[in-house]
Specification:
With 434 residues, the chain is α+β, with helices and mostly antiparallel strands. It contains 13 helices and 23 strands. The structure holds uridine-diphosphate-N-acetylglucosamine (UD1).
Length: 434
């Protein structure tokens, strides 16, 4: 069983290069199904979520070729609608994009209900509302989603989202790209990866306007053609290194980023006394000797990202005084706090609010990654703690961070990937879906 072993207490120093955005990549790969031709996707993050989606596409008949470490060529000319590997679909949240992509390409889709990190109930009713409005008949039965159009085509329409949903906005954009007529999504989410998906599709011949605002207009086109596209840098990966640099009192240049996408994180870091300087495509972080407390509320973009909530809680646990973290997106995203408490953090949780009595030293402990970003938070805590921290269930972390150990080691962290022998009483353990 692989675990991360961290000997904490080292300040992160140096430069780190950010990979392509996971949440853009996991939509762009399914969206490639719509393309009648070869698309070459650059800045593709090498993480397990993208690996799984590429495998699913191959199963549907796509030819996938790795050109180099971060460039993938996908040829969907000869894809066919068939049974996709459901065991893989079930493991990732982003498999929901296959509903929109398969409906758009084949006029029908059978997928599993998506997996993904467990932050309480994560319904996909807004996705289904969107697909139904576009003319599909959708049924959810025994953990599967069955969707079918009557005449093989989706039809553009006006869709008002009852919740600001990243996934539903992107899924409807994908489905509507080849639909007949015009689709208007109102109350759309505005995350940078939504703009990236629209830019990818537009570069292949789609006609999508307004991505990045709360009204997205999609004029369906007959066909998408091949082309080359580079994915934007990952906002959350960048934010994780920024917070880790600040939490360890280090000095790090975070490279290959779009500083505008990071403003929501930079602003909060500055409130803690961290120096944040923005350059063209990099951000310089210098940790404060005395971190200051602050309050944070997570919100849809351009608010503070919910995915940065767990690492930010670690930083606040180190800042003198009482900080309040309010989770504005999910009902249940503080499960990892129990693990953080094992390391000496004083955090109490009441529903969507965590009160952090900061300034207590963290000490190394065996902890586990409850999900992807909680796992990143455990690593951040381990980097700041005295002694040794062993992080289990790292498969969650590897879903979203390319070469996490390598990048942290290059910044001077004492972290290693260690293969522990399987514990007998865990032999039958069911791995929670990540
Ligand atoms: C995406 C990201 C995830 C991030 C989240 C919010 C991917 C693969 N994942 O997840 O990392 O934490 O955005 O930035 O891109 N909701 C409904 N019904 C729906 C859809 C969502 O009630 O049909 C609710 C969710 O339960 C949640 C809120 O709306 O409370 C926002 O969810 P959403 O923006 O859809 O998140 P995801 O797309 O699942």
């Amino acid at each position: 069983m692989e675990k991360y072993v961290i000997n904490g207490g080292k300040k992160l120093q140096g430069e780190v290069e950010i990979s392509g955005a996971k949440n853009a990549a996991v939509a762009i790969i399914p969206a490639a199904l719509l393309v009648d031709g070869v698309c070459c996707i650059e800045n593709m993050p090498q993480i397990s979520d993208t690996d799984m989606l590429l495998t699913i596409l191959k199963d549907l008949g796509a030819k996938v070729r790795l050109i180099n470490k971060s460039t993938v060529e996908i040829d969907c000319t000869d894809v066919h609608n068939g049974d996709a590997p459901y065991d893989l679909m079930r493991k990732i949240r982003a498999s929901y994009y296959l509903i929109g992509a398969m409906l758009g390409r084949f006029g029908a889709a059978k997928t599993t209900m998506p997996g993904g990190c467990n932050f309480g109930v994560r319904p996909i009713d807004q996705h289904i509302k969107g697909m139904t409005a576009l003319g599909a008949e959708v049924e959810v039965k025994n953990g599967f989603v069955y969707a079918e159009t009557r005449d093989g085509k989706l039809h553009g329409t006006r869709i008002y989202l009852d919740k600001v949903s990243v996934g539903a906005t992107m899924n409807i954009i994908i489905a509507a790209a080849l639909a007949q007529g015009r689709t208007i999504i109102e109350n759309a989410a505005r995350e940078p990866h939504i703009v990236d998906l629209a830019n990818f599709l537009n570069s292949m011949g789609a006609d999508i306007r307004g991505a990045g605002t709360d009204t997205v207009k999609i004029n369906g086109v007959e066909k998408l053609h091949g082309g080359t596209y580079a994915i934007i840098p990952d906002q959350i990966e960048a934010g994780t290194y920024m917070v880790a640099a600040a939490a360890t009192g280090g000095e790090v240049l975070v490279k290959n980023v779009i500083p505008r996408h990071l403003e929501c994180i930079s602003a909060k870091l500055r409130e803690t006394g961290t120096i944040v300087q923005e350059y063209g495509d990099s951000v310089y972080i210098k940790g404060a000797s005395n971190l200051r407390r602050t309050n944070v509320k997570t919100l849809p973009y351009p608010g503070f990202p919910t995915d940065m909530q767990p690492p930010m809680c670690v930083l606040l646990a180190l800042a003198e005084g009482t900080s309040v973290m309010t989770e504005g997106v999910y009902d249940d995203r503080f499960k990892y706090v129990n693990e953080l408490r094992k390391m000496g953090a004083e955090v109490t949780v009441d529903g969507r609010v965590a009160v952090i009595e900061g300034g207590k030293p963290l000490t190394g402990a065996p902890v586990h990654a409850c999900d992807l970003r909680a796992g990143a938070a455990m690593v951040t805590a381990g980097l700041c703690a005295s002694g040794t921290t062993v992080v289990e269930d790292i498969h969650f972390i590897e879903r979203g961070y390319e070469n996490f150990v390598g990048k942290l080691r290059a910044l001077g962290a004492d972290i290693s990937l260690v293969n522990f022998p399987e514990e007998p009483d865990n032999a039958d353990k069911v791995i929670a879906i990540g």
